[in-house]
Amino acid sequence: MQAEGDVVRLPERSTEAPRDFSVFFAEERRKLFEALYFVTGNRADAAELMQDAFLRLWERWDSIDRIDDPTGYLFRVALNGFRMRSRAARRAARRLVRVESARDPFDEIELREDVRRLLLGLAPRQRAALLLLDMYGYGSKEAARIMGIRRSTVRALATQGRAVLRTTGIPNA
Questions:
Q1: What are the backbone dihedrals phi and psi of residue 99, each rounded to the nearest 5 degrees, phi first?
Q2: Domain segments of the chain: what residues?
Q3: What predicted TM-score, i.e. pTM, was given to this entire model?
Q4: 117-167 CATH fold
Q5: Model confidence pLDDT, tens digit, residues 107-124
Q6: Euclidean distance between CA atoms 95 and 88, whole angstroms
Q7: Strands (DSSP E) along the chain, which ranges?
């Protein structure tokens, strides 16, 4: 702890002149290229990312003494560049490639047959109530008029029919 009025000495900056960029480039080029080639799996991409990273560092070379670890900064810039390119490529691919499911006409036939078989498992009045309400979209008043029964009976029959369908394994019935 320091007493009031004591002079605080800050660590002195190195008076050593920053290394020459061409020397730094020669020393780090191979290591960075190998690391990027390992990450990308492509020589051309690795070379391009390496050039971009060195360019960014060269733009800041006059203030290199403020960067604690120039090699670490170089690698971080290169790997961030790889991540940004990968994300941009994924976004572009999602926009360009529309995944459309191929419709098989036989699937529709099978689905219709399954629905038909399930509906045949219901009592005729339950089946009629479900079809009028759910498939044809009639309200309970119109369905009751068509079937010649009360509205509450139509709703009860439809509820019973849905319960039977749920027990047979139909979700959201």
A1: -90, 110
A2: 21-95, 117-167
A3: 0.46
A4: Arc Repressor Mutant, subunit A (1.10.10)
A5: 788 888 888 888 888 999
A6: 11
A7: none
